[in-house]
Amino acid sequence: MVLSGDVIHRMPSKSLRNLDLNLMVVFEAIYASGNISHAATHLGMTQPAVSNALARLRGLMDDPLFVRAKRGVAPTLKARRTIGPIRDALKLIGKQIHTGEIDFATYERDFRIILADPLEPIVMPPVIKTIVERMPGVTLECLTGYRTNFVEEIVEGTVDLACFIFPILRPDIITEPLGEMDVVIVARKGHPAFVKKITAAEFAKLKHIVLTPELRSVVQADQSMASQGTSRKGTYTVSKLWSFPPMIERTDLVGILPRWFVQEVSRNFEIEAHEMPGPLSDQYFYLTYHTRNVDDAGHRWLRESITQAFRAKTGSAATAKPAGT
Fold it and tell me: Which ranges of 110-258 does DSSP label H, i.e. alpha helix?
């Protein structure tokens, strides 16, 4: 392995001859997560093994590299100067070694992802079908619901990927558009309010099932309605979209849900979709992940599988909106 820049000048030739590429991988993982335990989890190693690797690297680099901090460890000045060349070297080596293909039969990986509730019945069945039928060494843990710290979890390496409606704008995070979230009104079949096309004022007067305030602010339906001079009041407030179908089926409550989510779950519930009385602001789902996973073949397979599943079900590829626009 050949490193560039400051790294070469500060490492004697004897150190370079004794350098183990795995030490560089451990160094990058600790630097990215700021925590030795989190780095061990991300690498699939034990914490003592990571600590031993760090001790070896400290000897080779003649520097502590990381010092104790409030939530883990913080890089020294030498570590901060070294991380750039090391990442460049690892990226270059990765491109040369990996062809972009993985052997499904022998590949081993434990994925952890954060998935917005309405996406689960859309994207997970085909992904899991592939894992069950062709990838015996792969597991996937899906963390659904709203999580305020999901960016930190991605940076720490405890989460591989997030699928949510937040476009994250920071240099170490990649945000890719997945597709549009088109919403409809949902009511039980035969609801008396929908014998004719409903007006915005009539819709606002109905009894609504709504998400908690923090989730409603994310979805932005209420903000769009307010801009049109209408508002609604929640009769029943819940923390997850999966509560909507059974409650709407068995009461006169109405709600707002993504169109493709309703199409998927309506086969199991006596509910039907109706068009909104007025247009709402466009919203999009995004894939969010750390830059260290860009060229990871397994991670790329997961991203591509989720994207293909979403667009096959919703047909929204053409409307995908770049982050920050």
Answer: 120-134, 150-156, 200-205, 213-219, 221-227, 244-250
Measured in degrees and rounded to the nearest 5, phi and psi for residue 131 equal: -65, -45
Per-residue pLDDT of the chain (325 residues; tens, 9 = 90+): 334 444 434 444 445 555 677 888 899 889 888 889 888 887 888 889 999 999 999 988 899 999 998 888 999 999 999 888 888 888 777 665 555 678 899 899 999 999 988 899 999 999 999 999 999 999 999 987 667 678 888 988 889 999 987 778 888 899 998 888 888 999 999 999 999 999 988 998 999 999 887 776 556 666 666 666 677 888 999 988 899 999 999 999 999 998 989 999 999 999 999 998 887 777 788 999 999 898 889 999 999 999 999 988 887 654 444 444 4
Angle at 64 between CA 58 and CA 70, to 5 degrees: 130
